[in-house]
Design brief:
167 residues; alpha/beta; Rossmann fold; 6-stranded mixed β-sheet; globular
Amino acid sequence: MQANQTVLLGAEEIRWKIRRMAWEIAEAGQGCSKMVLVGIAPRGNVLAERLAQEIARTTGLEVEWGVLHIDKDDPIGSPLRLEINLESCRGATVVVVDDVLNTGRTLLHALKPFLDIPLCKLRTAVLVDRDHKTFPVRADVAGMVLSTSLREHVRVELGDRDSVVLL
């Protein structure tokens, strides 16, 4: 660990956040026949898969999940690539998932593919909402909301050692 970093969430706290987020997402999807979670690579897709597994485990609902690839540094100028059939989202609650919501730019562009098909609901979920919005995007479900300075950076690790660290 670097000297000037603070661990905000460890593995156990992240598990608890995912469990709570899964219940919120499942509740928000009531009244719809299907639920699809789409995670923004590289960490949003890991979070989406874990959320889908937790929703299925705790509620018995069948949840499909997929991956959306977007250049987070240039979401406008680069193409989006979906690893899920858009037709499978028709009539479903679609939840676009990412690790951190900062300005809202990436999440806003990630919603585009779902605007041209009829959905039951379109929602967003993030593990950490930094509350630095430049665009009118909000997380419908957030593991934690964090007020930080613009110079600070949030690093999320989802893999062998789960953590959320403030740098």
